[in-house]
Amino acid sequence: MTEEKIKYENLTTGFNFAPSAFKVDAKTVALYLKATDDHNAEYEDKLIPPMAIAAMAMKAMAERFDLLPGTVHVSQQLEFLNTASIDETLTSYAGVARKIVRGKFHMLTISIKVLNQQQETVITGEIGFILPMN
Q1: What is the pTM of this model?
Q2: What pLDDT, on a 0 to 100 scale, did the predictor assign at position 94?
């Protein structure tokens, strides 16, 4: 059963999405390393590249609400606090930090936080979007 996406209109500052658990396996890490041309041996055997974790957290967040056509990802500010191992279960938390309307443009800032299996924070940050409105 697929979870229904939340409509943008229903998002308000302070809204929290349901947590999302995910694993990053060795195959996914290998594909990420190939795509980014990263040759760090630490990532090939045990650790997940931090930006790969961020990408998975953003994907989990984006699957929770309808991004309107024409939405532009304009900024991100991330802080990497811990490492995560391949096949470790990570949990991503996201919420609406700000929702601002300026004429036909809406600005949306989503906060994210990713925890590892030991409940240690791996990543925190914010992601900004501009959504054109009719």
Answers
A1: 0.86
A2: 94
